[in-house]
Amino acid sequence: MKLSVVIPAYNEQICIGQVVLRLAKELELNDIDYEVILVNDNSTDSTLDVLAALTKDNPRVKAVNSIQPRGFGWAIRQGLDSISGDAVVIFMGDGSDDPNDVVRYLNKLKEGYDCVFGSRFIKESKVVGYPWIKFILNRAGNKLIQSLFFLKYNDISNAFKAYRVGVIKAIQPLISQYFNITVEMPLKAIVRGFSYAVIPIHWNGRDSGVSKYHIKELSRKYFFSILFVWLEKMLLKEEIKRHA
After folding, report:
1. Which structural domain, as residue segments, surrounds residue 39?
2. Domain count, the chain
3. What tens digit of pLDDT does each residue of 128-163 get?
């Protein structure tokens, strides 16, 4: 199973190099066939130059420029259009995700699951440096999602997830342009009946650079994505009833 890892990068000149090097080292130590797709999300610093250097050092690393306006969702969609693997992992360019968890994701996919979702908030997970205000809002938002979709899974909004390519094709079209794509993708996969495993993961707050996540301006976008997929769920439910 070839693994594609999509990493969006906006003004990550300080940390993206080490992030990619650590990830590649872990994948190679575990003898994994992989490619890393780096998506330059309209960076205004030297990120593009760093990405170009990474591609020269490792032929498995590819860099693409987002052709859309700046936005995390746009960058993810551009990256997904560029993959050639059998499965894909969305990985953050700020170093918050653990490369070893990528290996664990892939092993779960090989067990037969369609998706693998990590949780930062279950037994054996480890979270370091998570801002407390963001933590409170995150927990409240995920509780709302759990209630609306009757889910036990408690970390839907985390971007770091794995999908078989068939799932990515089935959840199209993706419409989110910003960080709300982090809820659109897994919720669509769940609503459309794909199987998933949940495992504990490690998360570390960035120690360099600046966070691109702005809670206030994104709250309405998250709500729109949640409502959009919830309406799809209701429509599918009615369709099943009509054909029962």
Report:
1. 3-242
2. 1
3. 999 898 899 999 999 999 999 999 999 999 999 999
Each residue of 72-125: pLDDT tens digit? 999 999 999 999 999 999 999 999 999 999 999 999 999 999 999 999 999 999
The residue assigned the tokens 């997970």 is 125
Q: What per-residue string of b and e applies to 203-239 under the rule 16 or more CB within 10 Å gives b?
A: beebeebeebeeeeeeeebbeebbebbeeebeeeeee
E strand or H helix at 71? none
Cα angle for residues 183, 184, 187 (degrees, 5° grid): 80
DSSP secondary structure string for all residues of 201-222: -EEE--SSS-----HHHHHHHH
The mean-pLDDT minimum among 12-21, 90-99, 204-213 falls in: 204-213
Q: How far is CA 74 from the centre of its chain?
A: 13
Query: Which three-class secondary structure state does DSSP give residue 34?
Result: strand
Helix or strand run (H / E) with residue 118: strand 115-119
Task: Give the pair of three-digit tokens for residue 176.
Answer: 């989110």
What's the CATH code of the domain at 193?
3.90.550.10
Give the model's pLDDT for residue 237: 80
Other residues' Cβ atoms within 10 Å of the Cβ of residue 163: 28
Token output for 48: 């593009």
